[in-house]
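Q: I have 156 residues here and want to know how they pack in 3D. Can you give me a structure?
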Amino acid sequence: MSKKKKVLIVIISLLIIIQFIRPERNVAVAYTSTDITHSVTVSPEVKNILEKSCYDCHSNHTEYPWYANVQPIAGWLAHHVDEGKDELNFSEFDTYKLKRKTHKLKEVIEQVKKGEMPMSSYLIIHKNAALSEEQKSILVKWAEESVLVLQDTLKK
C-alpha cells in the first residue's frame, strides 16, 4: 500500500473516531430567576432582538444548526459559545454585581454601534441574526436606558 493511501486511511479513521466525541450542549432554559429581565426592563421588541441575534452565544440556550453534529465543527461551536457566555450571559445577568451589569451593557452599546456584534463569522450562516439599523438603534437605546437605571441604583 502506498504512503498516500496509508495517510488517507489514517485521516479518514481519525475523522470517523472524533465523531464519537460530543461536547456538552448549551440547552438549558434561557429565562430563569437570574436572567436579565430581573435586572432591567426588557420590552418584547428588545427580547425578540436579543433572542434572534444574541442568545445563541450569550445565554444558557443555543439553537444548534444541523452541522453542530459534525466534528470538529461541534467542538469549535462549543468553544465559541463558552467564550460568549464567559463574556456576557443574559441568562445569568442578574447574578452579576451592579457595577459589572452596567459595564456589560456599556459594552453592548459599544459593540452594537461598531457593528462588532453579532460577529461577522456568525452572520455568514445566520443571516437572520443581522441587525438592521432600526434594530441597532432600539438595542442601543434600551441598553443606554438600562445603564441609567442601574447607575441610579448604584447611587442609592
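Q: Anything worth noting?
A: The helical segments are 3-18, 44-53, 55-58, 73-87, 98-114, 120-123, 133-155. Residues 6 and 58 are 43 Å apart (CA to CA).
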